[in-house]
Amino acid sequence: MRLSSVSFRYRKREHFVITDVDARLFPGEVIELTGTNGAGKSTLLRLLAGLTRPTSGVILDRPAVVGFAPDRFPTAQPFTVTTYLRHMSRVRGGARWEPWAERLGMGHLMNTSLRDLSKGSAHKVGLTQALMADPQLLILDEPFAGLDADTRKTLPVIASEVADRGGIVVASDHQSGLRDLPALRHWTLRDGHLDADAPATGWDTEHVTVAVTLPAADLPRFLTRMREDGYGAHEIEEAV
């Protein structure tokens, strides 16, 4: 797959979000895309997936089967998790979603309305629909955001499996969840310009601690929800 002089802007006379990108992607590769907020990462991923067309330049030899998991899965839909995945299976020609739902630990979510999902749980639905058709090109936008610890361990293994069967994986990831994969390629996007194979430095990762006070009766549910979303939530007794 090849990007040749690819540029993109949303409207005429606006600045280019992506500027003159040239890159090649090869079967069996896993690519980590980093960059500050607003650098154009999500736009580049949508261009790679074929969801957005370049303003200029061309993208050649995109694989026939593409899986795309967005940063924010659209939960404002009148479906349960099961109904949605069955629908996507029909769209994908009868692709099997059940093994992926099981592998991502979604058994307790199947009858839940999409509108009621936490961010991490919604992200699992997005990953399942992206993986069900055995994509030759898998695009993941911040795939580790909100995931529980078990799924965070599983996702790099899945990325490796896609690459091992000859697929291409591209993931924007400020949490460096893929860093331990051998032969991981690094792309950095700065102000719309792509630096391919730039070393991952972690300079765009920020961690904060937030203290929350709430009624004791609400504490168990709050801690469960935060931990499901992948946050390190702990109870702290307030000093009297």
UniProtKB/TrEMBL annotation:
Pfam families in alphabetical order: ABC_tran
SMART domains reported in the protein's UniProt record: AAA
UniProt keyword terms in alphabetical order: ATP-binding, Nucleotide-binding, Transport
InterPro entries: AAA+_ATPase, ABC_transporter-like_ATP-bd, ABC_Transporter_VariousFunc, P-loop_NTPase
Residue intervals of the ABC transporter domain: 1-216
Molecular function terms, GO-annotated: ATP binding; ATP hydrolysis activity
Record's protein name: ABC-type multidrug transport system, ATPase component
UniProt source species: Nonomuraea maritima
